[in-house]
Write a structure and sequence with these properties.
Number of helices: 13
Radius of gyration: 24 Å
Helix content: 40-55%
Strand content: 5-15%
Order of helices and strands: HHEHEHEHHEEEHEHEHEEHHEHH
Number of strands: 11
Strand order of the largest sheet: 7-6-8-5-9-11
Structural class: alpha/beta
Largest sheet: 6 strands, mixed
Shape: globular
Oligomer: single chain
Length: about 375
């Protein structure tokens, strides 16, 4: 090659690398290149929450904004609140079929699809939010979740965490185990199955229907999340007894994509979604902590009685959890695999949690 031709070729490659943000090796085909500046991608994401619902809904709104900013506008996610494209609890099926591209909701809503799915939200009386995130990222949780969701053509990310949820609002005080028998309570997931062992009739209702059901006496009690969101829901107006929690010690929310659609995205867009989801998860957890601390003060000013469940109920709940796990494990090999993974990690991390955070919290 003549010197003049060589310099011209080098200049072209160098200019292309500068404009595209790529290395010489990428331009020459040794590495994959994904330049999205001229390619606009739009995705539809439906949630199980009302429009701009505090913390959960607004968190997803921020996620979409982050994705757009990080991609330089080449990837846009349009967020649709519940019932605009699909009903609140139809987002799983709609995304699985490719009717929409993604959804934000809670894994325990889909236990009818596979009993193991409820475990990905967390387990009563077991790991908290930080411990669950460790299991997901370092203990095999993500691999199991994506394997099982993959059978429905879905690809999930952690999309937030509520932290410890409160035990619920009751129209009458719960002073002994027998007071739970026959109560109709809105409570999903494994917590609902444990409560059923304690005599409760668990009912699954979407957010928009809970207050009316409680007000009319269709249900006798409800759990939702924690003080920040519970005050907004107005439960204190019709149920004055508020109990501390154990049934959802760190509930994971999900940001789940149609797997085929996600795989069709460029590697850059996939990476942007991944890290925006991690930011969403962290921000949402910390926002829940902040907002709940402020809302707790309001509850005390409103003279709402905050109570602990009697010890006999907690002890019975621990036994009931063992019973539920044994029953579900016999019915579902997937449930057994996921639970065994969680339990193994719980036994690994609990001793450290006990001598670090738990010990510190008990003495500060």
């Amino acid at each position: 090659m003549k010197r003049r031709d060589f310099l011209k070729s080098a200049a072209v490659v160098g200019a292309a690398a500068t404009l595209g943000g790529c290395t010489r090796e990428q331009i020459e085909g040794k590495k994959s290149v994904n330049i999205n500046r001229q390619r606009k991608v739009k995705l539809k994401l439906a949630t199980s929450w009302p429009a701009h619902f505090p913390i959960m809904g607004t968190g997803v709104d921020r996620f979409a904004e982050m994705v757009k900013a990080m991609s330089g506008g080449s990837l846009e996610i349009k967020v649709y609140p519940k019932n605009i494209l699909v009903p609140a609890l139809a987002v799983f099926d709609a995304t699985s079929r490719g009717q929409i591209d993604a959804f934000h909701s809670g894994p325990y809503y889909w236990k009818g699809k596979n009993p193991a799915f409820s475990l990905f939200s967390g387990l009563p009386l077991r790991m908290n939010a930080n411990e669950l995130n460790c299991w997901m990222n370092y203990g095999g949780g993500y691999e199991l979740w994506r394997e099982l969701y993959g059978k429905f053509n879905l690809y999930p990310f952690i999309g937030g965490n509520t932290g410890v949820q409160m035990g619920g609002w009751f129209r009458k005080p719960i002073e002994k185990l027998d007071d739970l028998k026959g109560l109709k309570m809105r409570i999903p997931g494994m917590g609902g199955e444990v409560m059923a062992k304690l005599g409760v009739n668990p009912i699954l209702l979407p957010a928009g229907e809970i207050f009316t059901a409680l007000e009319r006496g269709t249900i006798d009690a409800t759990e939702w999340v924690g003080p920040a969101l519970d005050i907004r829901m107005g439960f204190y107006k019709v149920a004055r007894y508020y109990y501390t929690g154990w049934h959802e010690p760190g509930s994971i929310l999900e940001l789940t994509f149609n797997k085929t659609r996600f795989n069709s995205l460029s590697s850059e867009h996939q990476a942007i979604i991944k890290y925006a989801a991690e930011a969403l998860s962290s921000q949402m957890y910390h926002e829940f902590m902040d907002e709940n601390s402020k809302a707790l003060k309001k509850l005390k000013e409103m003279n709402i009685e905050i109570k602990d469940f009697p010890k006999e109920i907690i002890e019975r709940a621990k036994k009931a959890l063992v019973e539920v796990v044994e029953e579900q494990s016999k019915k579902s090999s997937d449930f057994k695999r996921v639970f065994n993974s969680m339990e193994s990690y719980y036994k690994q991390i609990k001793p450290w949690s006990d001598i670090s955070e738990s010990k510190y919290l008990s003495i500060r």
